[in-house]
Amino acid sequence: MTEPILQIENLHKTFSVKTGFGKTAHAVAVDGVDLTVGKGEVVGLVGESGCGKSTLGRLALGLLSPTSGRVLFGSQDITSIGKKALRSLRKDMQIIFQDPFASLNPRMRVRDIVTEPLVIHKLAGQRDQEQHAASLLEKVGLNADALARYPHEFSGGQRQRIGIARALASRPSFIVADEPVSALDVSVQAQIINLLGDLQQEMGLSFLFIAHDLNVVRYFSDRVAVMYLGRIVELAPADEIYSRPSHPYTEALLADIPVADPTMKKKHILLKGDIPSPTQIPQGCRFHTRCIHRFEPCDKVAPKITDLGNGHFVECHLRG
Ligand code: SF4
Asked: Which CATH number does the domain housing residue 106 bear?
């Protein structure tokens, strides 16, 4: 891995949630996560809805404050710097949202949407902003005549391209892409992933690429982290995680990926039941309530992280 641009250290985030009858419970969204993203590296972060991956993405950008732990961007701890310093850092860290319909203000023209980060961070004069916006649209595959139009005049894929142009406007070095293709038609998903891959190469960007499907991050990520109920249960170089998955949850997610060749046999390891509530994290291994391989210690003792070598880490008693 290259020099780190982002280092997440023992990060925890707990929310208070109302459970009715005036009672509250603690929902553990992120539970002791360590993760590093190198300069120019793409780390895929994969897990089911409710596993805490979007919360981790927002913590990584300083959009949420952690309950404990640290996030270093470069050498700066964004969990302890003041609001002004964090605002200034934000031009280097951007987000692409999941929903291209909700994330663009319908009352703003594309020109104003794309140049908004330039205005907020005072990065260019009026004329330069217009030129910069036109060149950004070109970069994401849209014509400059889109500048005068409104979001509702575009398809989902085109809106996501506008969202990407906005994220690139302040020339960031790190981007959190929070399920950027999951709201799009399958036919458009590949186009947007290819576009992000091209931009990443061209601009040397670092990405935390969040998805609920291992297939989506397959060709775009250098490393993949698999998250379950607030913890990263497996982390490995991308080719390694697809060829040698070592956590039963990763195996189950991989078994869920559609196979293009119908003659190819696929191991079906179905996930049992739903992901437990983050207000009731199971004791021992948090995956034991759904794991087809669970054995004696799994419901009592939480597994430790095992280093399998070659940058491959897993949290499972089978590998300990
Ligand atoms: Fe399954 Fe046990 Fe491994 Fe957890 S520790 S994933 S329950 S085998």
From this structure: 3.40.50.300
